Amino acid sequence: MDGPLALETNGLTKVYGSGHTEVVAMRDATMRVRRGEVVALLGPSGAGKSTFLLCVGLINPPTRGRVSIGGRLMQDGPRSLGDLRRFRRENIGFVFQKSNLIPFLNAVDNVQIVGELIGRPASQARRRAMELLDELGVGPRARNMPTQLSGGEQQRVTIARALANQPSLILADEPTAALDGVRGRQVMELFRNVAHDRGTGVIVVTHDHRALDVFDTVYEMEDGSLRPASRPETSAVGE
Amino acid sequence: MNLAVRDIRHSLGRFTLTTIGVGMLLMVVMGMGGIYRGLVDDALVVTRGVGADLWVVQHDTRGPFAEVSRLPRSLVDRVATVPGVQEAREFVFHTIQREHRGKPLRMGILGLGWPIDKGQGLPLIAGRPLAQNHFEMIADESLGLAIGEKISLGKETYTVVGITRWLVTSGGDGIACFTSRDAQAIQFDEPGESVRLERQARRGRAGEIDFGRTQPSVLERASSVSGNIAALPGPAISAVIARLAPGADANEVQTLMGGWSDVTTYTQAQQEELLLKGSVDRARRQILLFRVLLTVISAVIMALIIYTLTLDKLHPIALLKLIGAPNRTIVGLILQQSLIMGVLAFGVGYIIGLRLFPMFPRRVLVTNDDLIRVAGIVVVISVFASLLGIWKAMRVAPNEAIG
Ligand SMILES: Nc1ncnc2c1ncn2[C@@H]1O[C@H](COP(=O)(O)OP(=O)(O)OP(=O)(O)O)[C@@H](O)[C@H]1O
Ligand SMILES: [Mg+2]
Q1: Residue B37, in any domain of the structure
Q2: Residue B249 class from Cβ within 10 Å (0-12 exposed, 13-18 middle, 19+ buried)?
Q3: Are B337 and B365 part of one and the same domain?
Q4: Interface contact A85-B1, CB threshold 8 A
Q5: For the whole model, what pTM was predicted?
Q6: Whose CA is nearest to atom 16 of ligand 1?
Q7: Considering the domain boundaries, does residue B267 fall inside one?
Q8: Percent with pLDDT over 90 in chain A
Q9: So what's the ipTM on this one?
Q10: Which residue in the set B10, B397, B402 is minimally distant from A96, CB to CB?
């Protein structure tokens, strides 16, 4: 169980607000994700799962603790918002519950733009975007606008976008919540294949316990505390 | 990939309508400038058209355009003898309002110094200059008269032989050109009854003095045409215009005539300045202020439009930040949209203006210089207008894309 780490967090803590409105959303979260590992993150609503992803994704700074991505410590020295954004576009892919496509770009443009943002020439970024859409089975829909795609298709385009910068880490927050069971499982399998084939670390927040067998590791979060969970087959999580 | 263009294509209908709206606003900005230019140009067209170097007017008046100036016809000969003057002509100019075909017809009457000036220097678009020293006229097209049309003014009937374009008074009325004799006849036309009364009064006055009682021929003379009475002056002219001999200095000639206590002289440049400072100045400043106001309003409206367009895009903008797009990309998106809208609106305004302005009752003169200036203003407005939107976009946090 070793190999280069995609992500390592140490004692991540996030406190929202102050005084009597203070909420400790996450407490001492520590996690290691190897390259090529798919991690599921379970937990009841309000447990702090999204908070964890936002800190790891360099969107919200943690109150305390450390994040290293691809072996690079993120809290090392002063980092401007611009630096964080550049790191994000070069190393992290995001997938969220609701489809998060840019509404005025068609499917292939939504993927292509990520390539262009990291400095690839437009033609190369487009070729790569088409390849990804084909791989994810939405190639024929490449020229459709987001509103002309079904929920599952939108989610697959979003995954293609998350892959377009060849990230070392993919963060997915309830990516299958809007999908039916079969489609949801397909998406989860897609994440596993991506992780295994490309050596990307993937963290997926999910409520769907039926697909847990897809994951290499399962973490559970409750009241802001993160801990590894037992394998899904053996746990008697009833729903 | 150009995000600004993609977004515009996505909401093309709304963008087009807004652009047309802004375009019309810019058209008004252009039009205001055009009205101003037209006003200045109209004011100067007559003074420039007659080809004068010096204007001799009634003492202490501001010339025939600003106020009434009356001079005896004999002054023409006096001016002609001044060293440095090559040629002197009478200038007759006044405005009348008569009825023609049942409608009020207001026009400027310009007397040409026949036989030197037959109107060959006028901006003719049809017909010919005057060919005889009576009963012919050249009319501006804005008067709505056709070649060959006859119009009666005073006791005579005049035939239109030529049509000019943009020959108008500073008040915007079309100008009709006659020989100066005809022009005076129109100006000093008196009804027969008033002539009869005047002669009777004259005879009465003559009969009361010794001279009249002892000299019967005086009574007889008093009842005849006033032009035959040496003691009564002929009808006045408005000004004398002089053309200088080659090499003569206008200021020197002006100084020579400076000693004449019955007249004031102006060079052509002074005359133009009098016109602009005098009759057109208020209108000019009024339009200028209006134009500034409109420019500011256009800027504010455009800023609000760009701001609303940006508000509609806050979610995609947050998303762009989330996937790591630099601020440059986001600023570019908003700024480019603003500039595209500004440039297209300028084009729309120009094209609509091109169709619309010729239908205006007065001239709207849009010069290339003015167009370039408006284009510059549009670029500045567009940049300024995008600032509000950019400010809003910069404040969006990437996590607003989620949830
Ligand atoms: N911006 C914020 N300000 C204040 N409190 C916040 C903020 N964001 C989240 N919280 C609080 O932090 C806690 C954890 O929220 P979080 O969104 O991480 O939960 P979650 O596990 O993702 O829940 P869910 O499954 O419903 O998405 C919650 O109690 C929430 O109210
Ligand atoms: Mg959540």
Answers
A1: yes
A2: exposed
A3: yes
A4: no
A5: 0.80
A6: A48
A7: no
A8: 59
A9: 0.90
A10: B402
